[in-house]
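Amino acid chain:
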Amino acid sequence: MYDLIVSSQLRAEMMLNAHFVFSTLAESFEQPVINNPELIKGVIHFDR
Protein backbone atom coordinates (compact mmCIF):
# COMPACT_ATOMS: atom_id res chain seq x y z
CA MET A 1 0.00 0.00 0.00
CA TYR A 2 2.84 2.36 0.80
CA ASP A 3 4.31 1.95 -2.68
CA LEU A 4 0.93 2.72 -4.27
CA ILE A 5 0.59 5.91 -2.24
CA VAL A 6 4.15 7.04 -2.94
CA SER A 7 3.68 6.45 -6.68
CA SER A 8 0.35 8.36 -6.62
CA GLN A 9 -1.55 5.31 -7.82
CA LEU A 10 -3.55 5.36 -4.58
CA ARG A 11 -4.74 8.63 -3.05
CA ALA A 12 -6.77 9.39 0.07
CA GLU A 13 -9.54 10.77 -2.16
CA MET A 14 -10.01 7.28 -3.64
CA MET A 15 -10.70 5.86 -0.17
CA LEU A 16 -12.82 8.75 1.10
CA ASN A 17 -16.13 7.42 2.37
CA ALA A 18 -17.52 10.17 4.57
CA HIS A 19 -17.81 13.96 4.64
CA PHE A 20 -18.64 15.80 7.85
CA VAL A 21 -19.00 19.44 8.77
CA PHE A 22 -16.72 19.90 11.77
CA SER A 23 -19.16 22.13 13.68
CA THR A 24 -21.84 19.38 13.64
CA LEU A 25 -19.54 16.40 13.99
CA ALA A 26 -20.90 15.26 17.35
CA GLU A 27 -24.44 14.98 16.00
CA SER A 28 -23.59 13.36 12.66
CA PHE A 29 -20.65 11.03 13.41
CA GLU A 30 -22.22 8.36 15.60
CA GLN A 31 -24.58 6.59 13.19
CA PRO A 32 -22.48 6.28 10.02
CA VAL A 33 -19.16 5.65 11.77
CA ILE A 34 -19.39 4.50 15.40
CA ASN A 35 -22.55 2.41 15.02
CA ASN A 36 -21.73 1.04 11.57
CA PRO A 37 -20.70 -2.63 11.83
CA GLU A 38 -19.92 -2.76 8.10
CA LEU A 39 -17.31 0.01 8.27
CA ILE A 40 -13.91 -1.57 8.74
CA LYS A 41 -11.69 1.41 8.05
CA GLY A 42 -12.41 4.74 6.49
CA VAL A 43 -11.01 8.05 5.38
CA ILE A 44 -13.04 11.01 6.58
CA HIS A 45 -12.99 14.57 5.26
CA PHE A 46 -13.93 17.37 7.65
CA ASP A 47 -15.40 20.47 6.02
CA ARG A 48 -14.53 23.65 7.90
